[in-house]
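Researcher: Quick test of sequence recovery. Tokens follow.
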């Protein structure tokens, strides 16, 4: 058997590590606190869960600090099969969950209970046994030696499966004890049943039953005789009672009638009294009516109503109301008219005054307007003079133009034309003067030449003077030109006079224009002023007309005033008449109201009187008749009933009935006594029958119990035999194991410890260990040195392993041997010997040995080395695997 791989997630100091594990020897090394022990604990925890925890630790402690879930997975191989166990621990606020799955070739197994059982079966070891045999925890090396012999016996027995026999024996013993206590209980019950049976038999139940039954027969006979005698007595009493009842009925009838008689008479009296009261009341009303009517007649005397008729009075009152309304309206109208006429007269007066003063104002204004017009008229004489001057100057200018050869409109172009003509003539004059100068020059030159004899043309000496003829021609020309110039100069003078005239005409045309507009202005001004004067005069006329109208209206108003005053007086007189009529009507109406009041009262009383009459006729008198008849009827009935009732007969009947009753009660008393005795006897008989049944039940129970006790006894004997068998078998096996173990132990110790002074070990039947020195002295193993103890312990485990391999029943599994720092107490030499022991274990067939050590020799010798290191910053551990093969 070997572990092949372990995976740790958030388990203690491991965050997430997966380690492949090989067969052979694996050494783990690393600094203190690196996590070596934790790794081994991981393997152990994967297998045994909660049972693997040291005492005082709980599931949550395996979870990496700061996490809430840890998962450990272990893969292992056994008998050529692969197994995988996965444990998961999760911490919640208040609880810790634990899940586990074991995967086997036969399928998965879930949940801690079933998985733990399966692991125990596979390894044939529970957690304790695993610790005692396969896993030597740090510091646990001496466990087997320091244990007490009986503990050691238990440990070893368990390892060698002897514990099972012990358990079977105990189980059998428990069973036997149980059966024995059942048997004891049954025996106790049986004893009780037996004594009950004895007591019941002592009571002679059959004889008692016979006696009770004969007495019951006698009593039954006597009771039936009594019943025969009681029946006729009951009949007699019933008959008497019936008759008495009918007589009592009569008596009560008489009582009822007497009561009724009294009641009827009292009712009659009441009705009669009612009648008297009503008549009194009626008389009062009659008197009151008469008095009311006489008062009304007095009031009516002052009015126009003649009868004592309420309706006539009412209608006259209404008539007066209507007339008063009319008068009221008429008086208001009259009032209105009086004040209207008076107001009108006053108004006429005022209006007349106002009109007259208005007329005065208007006449004054008219006067003012006329003055204003006259002033404006005299102002007009200046502009009129100016206008005349302007008009005569205009006439002069028109005359000038009429005599000229142009018009006022054409004068400007006429002037321009004349100036142009003058310029042209002047030009011609200049031309003539130029020609004259030229001609004179050539004449002068020719004369010089002629004087010098030279040709005036070419300057050459002239003989025959070819050009002398042109000289003459030019002298003619000068004379002609002089004449022409003179003519032209006189023409220019004439033209200059014409131009002067044209210019003066043009100026006159300008002046005419401005005079024309001046004339228009003056005319407009004179026309405007004249219109104003006209308007003022017209206004004065109108004002005077209006004043005249106003004066006429004032006069009219003044004549209306006396008429209006007369009308007002007439209206005032009409109103006074209306007031008189109103007052007399009001007096009459007051008298009528008084009369109406007393007449209504009289009417009311009439109705009261009629009501009383009605009551008497319809209610009281018929009642009186009724009660009188009732009284007569009751009296005659009473007389009849009294005759019917006979007092002697009642007494006789009562005596007969009481006698029968007395005799009946005597007989019934006797019967009751008998019946109570009968009851007693019946219950006594019931009791006896019950006891007889009980007796037969108890006898059956007694038989069943003794049968059961016999059978239990047999079973107890079988149990004892089985217990003995297990005991013998265990002793036998232990003796054989102890001998074998002792032999193996000595053999191994010799191998490990040859050089020392110890002779051999002795292992007693009760697993007491003794060490013998060579000198023959005996020693307790606890007296050995620390190193010696460690080696001895390993030797003992080794021996047990060997015994297991040799096997008692087939091939036992050899779990990996796990040693956590086994070298603590060993010196150099003994460490070598430990190596030898390890080699031997391998030879024995232990597939896998995992050890933790700081010892280089041991680590170097291992086939597989695992370094465990702690990360100093996170405090978490990491694993590094080196194979010796790789190192080599
Ligand atoms: N639940 C946990 N979470 C985190 N760290 C833990 C937890 N439990 C223990 N540790 C830490 O794990 C570390 C390893 O302890 P372990 O006993 O495995 O070391 P070791 O290598 O066997 O040391 P030594 O050589 O001294 O025996 C310790 O430092 C411890 O504080
Ligand atoms: Zn450790």
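Model:
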């Amino acid at each position: 058997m070997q572990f092949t791989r372990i995976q740790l997630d958030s388990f203690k100091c491991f965050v997430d590590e997966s380690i492949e594990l090989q067969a052979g020897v694996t050494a783990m090394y690393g600094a203190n606190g690196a996590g070596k022990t934790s790794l081994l604990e991981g393997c152990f925890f994967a297998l045994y869960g909660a049972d693997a925890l040291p005492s005082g630790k709980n599931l949550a402690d395996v979870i990496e600090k700061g996490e809430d879930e840890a998962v450990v997975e272990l893969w292992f191989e056994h008998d050529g099969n692969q197994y995988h166990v996965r444990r998961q621990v999760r911490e919640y606020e208040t609880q810790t969950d634990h899940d586990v799955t074991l995967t086997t070739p036969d399928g998965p197994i879930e949940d801690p209970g079933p998985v733990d059982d399966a692991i125990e079966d596979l390894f044939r070891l529970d957690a304790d046994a695993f610790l005692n045999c396969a896993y030597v925890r740090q510091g646990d090396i001496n466990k087997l030696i320091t244990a007490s012999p009986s503990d050691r016996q238990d440990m070893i027995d368990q390892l060698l499966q002897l514990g099972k026999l012990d358990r079977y024996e105990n189980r059998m013993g428990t069973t036997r004890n149980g059966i024995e206590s059942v048997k004891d209980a049954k025996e106790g019950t049986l004893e009780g049943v037996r004594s009950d049976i004895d007591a019941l038999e002592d009571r002679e139940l059959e004889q008692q039953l016979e006696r009770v039954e004969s007495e019951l027969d006698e009593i039954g006979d006597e009771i039936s005789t009594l019943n025969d005698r009681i029946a006729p007595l009951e009949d007699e009493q019933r008959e008497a009672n019936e008759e008495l009842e009918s007589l009592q009925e009569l008596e009560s009838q008489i009582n009822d009638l007497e009561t009724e008689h009294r009641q009827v008479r009292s009712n009659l009296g009441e009705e009669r009294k009612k009648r008297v009261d009503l008549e009194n009341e009626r008389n009062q009303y009659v008197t009151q009516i008469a008095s009311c009517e006489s008062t009304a007649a007095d009031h009516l005397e002052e009015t126009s109503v003649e009868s004592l008729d309420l309706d006539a009075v009412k209608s006259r009152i209404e008539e007066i109301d209507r007339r008063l309304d009319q008068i009221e309206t008429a008086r208001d109208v009259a009032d209105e008219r009086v004040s209207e006429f008076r107001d009108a007269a006053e108004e006429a007066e005022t209006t007349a005054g106002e009109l007259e003063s208005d007329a005065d104002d208007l006449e004054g204004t008219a006067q003012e307007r006329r003055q204003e017009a006259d002033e404006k008229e005299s102002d007009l004489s200046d502009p009129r003079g100016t206008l005349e001057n302007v008009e005569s100057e205009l006439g002069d200018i028109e005359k000038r133009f009429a005599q000229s050869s142009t018009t006022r409109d054409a004068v400007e172009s006429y002037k321009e034309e004349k100036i142009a003509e003058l310029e042209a003539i002047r030009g011609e004059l200049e031309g003539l003067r130029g020609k004259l100068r030229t001609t004179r020059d050539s004449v002068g030159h020719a004369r010089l030449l002629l004087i010098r004899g030279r040709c005036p043309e070419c300057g050459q000496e002239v003989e025959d003077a070819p050009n002398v003829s042109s000289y003459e021609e030019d002298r003619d020309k000068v004379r002609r030109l002089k004449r022409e110039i003179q003519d032209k100069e006189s023409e220019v003078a004439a033209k200059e006079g014409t131009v002067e005239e044209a210019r003066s005409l043009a100026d006159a045309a300008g002046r005419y224009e401005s005079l024309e507009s001046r004339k228009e202005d003056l005319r407009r001004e004179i026309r405007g002023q004249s219109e104003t004067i006209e308007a003022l005069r017209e206004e004065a006329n109108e004002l005077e007309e209006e004043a005249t109208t106003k004066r006429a209206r004032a006069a009219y108003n003044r004549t209306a005033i006396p008429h209006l005053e007369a009308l007002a007086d007439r209206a005032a007189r009409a109103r006074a008449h209306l007031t008189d009529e109103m007052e007399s009507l009001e007096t009459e109406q007051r008298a009528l109201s008084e009369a109406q009041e007393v007449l209504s009262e009289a009417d009311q009383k009439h109705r009261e009187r009629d009501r009383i009459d009605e009551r008497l006729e319809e209610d009281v008198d018929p009642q009186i008749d009724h009660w009188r008849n009732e009284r007569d009827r009751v009296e005659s009935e009473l007389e009849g009933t009294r005759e019917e009732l006979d007092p002697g007969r009642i007494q006789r009947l009562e005596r007969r009935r009481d006698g029968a009753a007395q005799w009946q009660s005597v007989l019934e008393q006797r019967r009751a006594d008998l019946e109570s005795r009968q009851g007693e006897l019946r219950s006594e008989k019931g009791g006896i029958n019950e006891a007889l049944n009980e007796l037969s039940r108890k006898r059956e129970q007694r038989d069943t119990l003794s049968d059961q006790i016999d059978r239990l006894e047999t079973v107890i004997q079988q149990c004892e035999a089985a217990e003995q068998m297990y005991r013998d078998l265990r002793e036998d096996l232990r003796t054989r194991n102890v001998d074998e173990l002792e032999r193996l132990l000595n053999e191994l110790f010799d191998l490990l410890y040859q050089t020392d002074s110890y002779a051999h070990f002795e292992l007693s039947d009760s697993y007491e260990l003794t060490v013998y020195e060579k000198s023959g002295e005996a020693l307790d193993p606890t007296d050995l040195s620390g190193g010696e103890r460690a080696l001895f312990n390993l030797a003992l485990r080794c021996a047990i392993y060997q015994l297991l391999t040799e096997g008692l029943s087939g091939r036992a599994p050899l779990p990996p041997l796990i040693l956590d720092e086994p070298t603590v107490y060993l010196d150099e030499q003994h460490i070598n010997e430990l190596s030898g022991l390890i080699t031997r274990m391998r030879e024995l067939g232990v597939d896998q040995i995992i050890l933790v050590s700081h010892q280089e020799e041991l680590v170097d010798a291992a086939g597989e080395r695992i370094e465990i290191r702690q990360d100093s910053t996170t405090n978490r551990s990491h694993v590094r695997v080196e194979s010796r093969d790789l190192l080599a």
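The mean pLDDT is 87.
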